[in-house]
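Teaching assistant's notes for section 4

Start the section by putting this record on the projector. Ask students to predict, before seeing the second block, whether GTP cyclohydrolase 1 type 2 homolog will look compact or extended. Collect guesses on the board.
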Amino acid sequence: MTETTTPNLAQVVAAFHDLYPPQLAAGWDASGLVCGRTAAPVRHVHFAVDALAATADEAVEHGAGLLITHHPLLLRGAQFIPDTDYKGHVLHTLIEGQCGLLGAHTNADAAIAGVNEALCDALHLTDRTALAEPQTQELGGEEHPVGTGRVGTLPEPLTLRALSERLADALPATAGGLRIAGRPEQRISRVALCGGAGDSLFEAVRSVGADVYITADLRHHPASEFREQELVRGTGCALIDCSHAASESLWLQRAGERLQALLAERGHSITFTVSSLNTDPWDFTVSTGSAAGSASTR
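Reveal the predicted structure now:
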């Protein structure tokens, strides 16, 4: 049996970035190592969607040497980080617990086995391509097409309701559930999706002829205008609006498995865990009563 060693933080970060390259990240993003001594040993890695007080506490309790989150803690920056500020509190908790922090945001959105590929897997989509901003990722000596969002085809057409139920079964439970625009019996074959906030991609969705677009954080005016335009054109692309955090959670388990396997190939051994905490900010909903279907759905 080949003896394995404990990697240091620099080795873990290098392996992770071989799987989810930082160069795939958008120019405005802040993915990468936020804190941590690169020579420190890392025996355990903890994964979560968000860097919150609760996930930082969880990482330290697990004895993690690294917390990998999807959302970068310092995406919008910070001039001061005292422990009286939430971002400072998270960083102090991790540093004092000897745990580094790594953000993997739009690079994980775009990459192989990332956020959007995990959503495709959950829906069994085939013939997948990037929805927008196509890029190339080198892995295993081969180049693979990747990019923003995904478009794919269902093995067999489903009704909009059945597809929504399949998605709901795959996602972690959240207070808001799913919001759906379209006729429940509408037949769906071609699916466009983008984990996280995706209402900037409506033109790309139109260009690929999708029957439904799955994303999160849909605002009233962009969603309403999209549905009205679909109505006028007679194309009728439906919308499924998810919890932001839920839509970006499915890739984490696979990311841990891939990181563990790649480090093993390099002679290193780690364990990992994925947070089961609900980092969606909402706790409950109150019904305003039974509503008639939208005027934009015919």
